[in-house]
């Protein structure tokens, strides 16, 4: 196991991971933000260097103080060899299996390996697999820039979210809706790019929040403002900013929301079924009898 501390190795690894997109996206994006300030205080492990097979990014030990906070206790994994990956992860030095944790990655093939580890360590596993969307080329957005197709007269302002908006975001995030996720949302808003449209009274009606891997993780347009072109307008402005700043990004959407796929594909995104994966692993409670 090698803890990557040297800047030149981190940069070299980042460039190597670019060759394995989309499978490496979670780790690739996390390392981007590590290089650019490391707002979530993450660290990077490889099984060996320079001939690595598996990369893991994780929070530093001092971050994982709450054993039940799966939003903070999240690991991101990319591997080129599933068998060696399993052996690497089974080491107690890589993952703290005594905590409630999340593991995220863009390789559904990790599922079998993680379940084997979970069975040996008496862990409950919940696997969520959704469609990954990746934009590989910069769109020519000139034909849509600044256009807002709406059937009502609205005065909208493109802005950033602030911590006072966190509850609104958390209340509309299907994978959140609890106190620990609220704290996570606040941290994302305070440390990473966010985008929103404000109504004439300064209230967000549509928003996007990036997570520590570059994923556009939390996005919503309030129901009464949907089907008016507002979400598209926000998307155009968001993508223009990210491309301008050279910030890598991607997103995922659940299969049940297929009505959103067409717009993304028309905007130049490529879809990868089962390309976004999250495993929640929970230690089983020991019997008192």
TrEMBL record:
Keyword flag Transferase: yes
Gene Ontology MF term list: glycine N-acyltransferase activity
InterPro entries given in the database record: Acyl_CoA_acyltransferase, Glycine_N-acyltransferase, Glycine_N-acyltransferase_C, Glycine_N-acyltransferase_N
One Pfam family from the record: Gly_acyl_tr_C
Keyword entries, A-Z: Acyltransferase, Transferase
GO cellular component: mitochondrion
Domain Glycine N-acyltransferase N-terminal stretches: 1-193
Domain Glycine N-acyltransferase C-terminal: 195-283
Enzyme nomenclature, EC number: 2.3.1.-
Alphabetized Gene3D superfamilies for the sequence: 3.40.630.30
Family from the record: Belongs to the glycine N-acyltransferase family.
Record PANTHER family: GLYCINE N-ACYLTRANSFERASE-LIKE PROTEIN 2, L-COA N-ACYLTRANSFERASE-RELATED
Protein name, per record: Glycine N-acyltransferase-like protein
Higher taxonomy: Eukaryota, Metazoa, Chordata, Craniata, Vertebrata
